[in-house]
Amino acid sequence: MPTPVFHNFSSAPKHVAPFSHAVECDDWIQLTGQMPTDPLSDSKPLPDGVEAQTQRVMDNLIIILSELGLSLKNVLSVRVYITQFERDYETMNKVYKSYFPSDQLPARTCIGVTALARGALVEIDMVAKRFRD
Question: 120: domain range?
Answer without folding.
Answer: 5-9+18-129
